């Protein structure tokens, strides 16, 4: 699933960044070498982060 259309970030990319130590959307973007553009994906990214960290 695509999380961020502007930066072509997939859910798997986000999960990989979480495993590498990212804990917030801004850290995910930084680990992927990207920056949020329109910002519409941030709440969706945060919901995935919350879900993944709750089950970890």
Would you write up a description of this structure?
With 56 residues, the chain is mainly alpha-helical. Helices cover 54% and strands 9% of the residues. The chain contains 3 helices and 2 strands. It has helices at 11-19, 25-31, 42-55; strands at 2-4, 9-10. It is globular and about 30 Å long. The N and C termini lie far apart (20 Å). The model has no long low-confidence stretch (mean pLDDT 93).
Radius of gyration: 10 Å
Number of helices, where a helix is a run of at least 4 consecutive DSSP H or I residues: 3
Order of helix and strand elements from N to C terminus: EEHHH
- Strand coverage percent: 5-15%
- Within the largest sheet, what's the order of strands? 1-2
Content-based structural category = mainly alpha
Characterize the overall form. globular
Low-confidence region ranges:
none
The overall average pLDDT, rounded, is 93
C-alpha termini separation = 20 Å
Q: Mind describing the biggest β-sheet?
A: 2 strands, antiparallel
Number-wise, the strands total 2
The percent of residues in helical segments reads 40-55%
Brief summary of the model shown:
This protein has 56 residues and is mainly alpha-helical.
Topology:
Elements: E1 2-4, E2 9-10, H1 11-19, H2 25-31, H3 42-55
Antiparallel strand pairs: 1-2
Helix pairs in contact: 1-3
